Amino acid sequence: MVLGGGIASFERGVINEGRYNLVIGDWAKNAQDAPTFQQAITFLQKFNTSMNSEGLTPDQYNTPWSWVQTPQNQMNFQYSYTTQMIARAVFYENYTQTQKSGQFTDVYNTALANFRAEMDHNGPLDWVAHDAWMLKNGYYWTYYWAVPLFFGGLIIGVIGAIAVTDDD
Hints:
This protein is mainly α. The protein is built from six helices and no strands. It has helices at 2-33, 37-53, 75-98, 106-120, 127-136, 141-165. The radius of gyration is 22 Å and the shape is elongated. The two termini are 27 Å apart. The model has no long low-confidence stretch (mean pLDDT 85).
């Protein structure tokens, strides 16, 4: 059981996470770290495109349980939020251009810092897409069962070791 939990944790944490980042996740991370608004817009557009190309439809949720399926946990909200962030980046870009604020001014850097803070204020930018992709691709079971499998196997192993070494 320890081995099963370890394998499940490895699969979830390394293999599936890597696949997700390859096809979707890195675009969100790159948008948050972009040095300019124009670069952030490009990455956000690629983030939206990659979610679409991976088959994440607006009606999908990031959880399989109906009692947790709220509007905020639906892909429709993820797409809407990303589109709003693109519009915000365009606004900031236009604002800093009209203020004649280059990339090395306080106005530009403050606007960029505010933009990054907005993308990260409730957790990662891809809070819905990440789990929705995992669920869609059949990797969701590892979220909830890898840790109990690991610790359950560890407990059974300890009990077995105690039973075997018992001198009675």
